Amino acid sequence: MSCLRRLVLLSPVNCRQYFITIRGQQVLSNTKINKGMAFTLEERQHLGIHGLLPPSFLTQDLQAFRVRENYKRQHTDLDRYVFLTALQDRNEKLFYRVLQDDLEQFMPIVYTPTVGLACQKYGHIFRRPRGLFISIHDRGHIAEMLHSWPEPDIKAVVVTDGERILGLGDLGCYGMGIPVGKLALYTACAGIKPEYCLPVTIDVGTDNEELLNDPLYIGLNQKRERSELYDELIDEFMEAITAKYRISCLVQFEDFANHNAFRLLAKYRDRYCTFNDDIQGTASVATAGLLSSLRVTGKKMQDNKFLFVGAGEAALGIAGLIVSAMQDEGLTKEEACQRIWLMDKDGLVCKGRSQGNVDGPKTPYAHEHEYLPTVKACVEDLKPTAIIGVAGAGRLFTESVVKLMGEFNERPIIFALSNPTSRAECTAEQAYVWTEGRAIFASGSPFKPVTLPDGRTFTPGQGNNAYIFPGVALAVIACRVRHIPDGVFLSAAKALAAQVSEEDLAAGRLYPPLKDILKVSTKLATHVAEHVYRHGLAAYYPEPEDKEAFIKAQQYSTEYDNFLPDVYSWPEHAQEVSIQEMKPLWDDLEERGH
Prior knowledge:
Elements: E1 4-10, E2 15-20, H1 25-29, H2 41-47, H3 60-72, H4 77-90, H5 92-101, H6 103-110, H7 114-120, E3 132-135, H8 142-146, E4 156-160, H9 177-190, E5 197-203, H10 209-212, H11 228-245, E6 250-253, H12 258-268, E7 274-276, H13 277-297, E8 306-309, H14 313-328, H15 333-337, E9 340-344, E10 347-348, H16 375-382, E11 386-389, H17 399-407, E12 413-416, H18 428-434, E13 440-443, E14 450-451, E15 457-458, E16 461-462, H19 469-479, H20 486-497, H21 502-506, H22 517-534, H23 547-553, H24 572-575, H25 579-591
Parallel strand pairs: 3-5, 4-5, 4-6, 6-7, 8-9, 8-11, 11-12, 12-13, 13-16
Antiparallel strand pairs: 1-2, 9-10, 14-15
Helix pairs in contact: 3-5, 4-5, 4-7, 5-6, 5-9, 9-19, 13-14, 13-20, 16-17, 19-22, 20-22, 22-23
């Protein structure tokens, strides 16, 4: 940032000293600098803010306590979202300190499921713009628009066009809540410095009639652009980003509709440093959960038969990574695909069916089989060991479906991964009760612990992409990776699964506790860093010997910085002025008439 420049890292205490050029009210208005009542008396006097704050001093601990107390007074989750957003706008370090102190409590507010409601209401709760808004009418000028962003050294961009926000559909410009929320998790979960992050919404219109008729809608009031102009705009965006921020700048695509998500990933993945979290991030976290489940069932990945309910980005991404995991076990790609079945809105995806198209990415999983129209019929006939719900259509895992899974599986694997909570295929309680506690369950949204009538308590694991994308992004940024192949996400899945303890599995969790996610992400990033160097994907040299120390050195600290100038003294003799030594000079000047 132009107003803040680091001078020196003070040792041995972990306190950074900065020189800033702004003074007075500007200091308190700058979220990256503002410490509120934690400014010391000397800082207040030096920065010209003495008198602008009450004559009292608070530590960051006390500030965090006050935030939590005020947070409890909020009545609804949307109120809590607005409250935390206001804190982020006011005091960035305190915001991330509060999040990291209790991520299990705050993640459902700053991201799914509450962020879905926040996106739906975005124009109504809009207070201060966050991120960069690029419209279809800005074609030819994106490079110039990037100069409007105040941070000069961007290393990670999260971009959406708002067409498929979670399971809520086309929210147009209201989709900005997703890049903002994702990048907040970059910092909270992995310690990526917020000044490196840029949220972007590409507004090409919306086909949501409710938004088009809403006078408070903040986006373009037009139907969604679907001509070749759309592709030209995305091409220009990618070129402008890499031209300004280097080819190693990470671009994460988020919540693009299926018809764009797959083709844009295929188009850009070998040209830029990019990934699609809905496809690859979801695949990685789901595969990690499946790898953990193998420790419970005692099976290999290839010993399972998978039925996906839903055949969109998430399903195809997960299926592809499962295939890679089975190939690691020695199967061919064709053999692995035979163990995976898909079901879309038209029924079982199979060869020769007359209902709906079977083409593109679905083709490898379309097998010779009679057409089956319902989830129950597919489960009854195929007898899968695992059902994975990613349809976003609500309670598709009915009591009869779940009980069928329990009949022919001692430990049925039931993943209800759709978001938000209202779109989950079943609840944790339903999965455990209907299988008498035998289900190996994971969900996309959080569920509370479940206690069965016999007294056993299960803490369901949330297959949250936040276990994957922040750690992967941290490694990619630190190692200056230029392309991100799927092997990176399989490596991340293995690293995540390896951190699940036996105690976690006994409690029903397939993932580590969210409270440990910063440590989990650091270890995951270290593992991914080792992978990218081993496979020649890293461009940062020389290669760090201690990669964990290297990763930790890149991370953000929520501790407040010191804004006092670097004041020091010289030896007294060096500052003395000798009158006797100056006398001959004065005498000479007097003789010359000066």
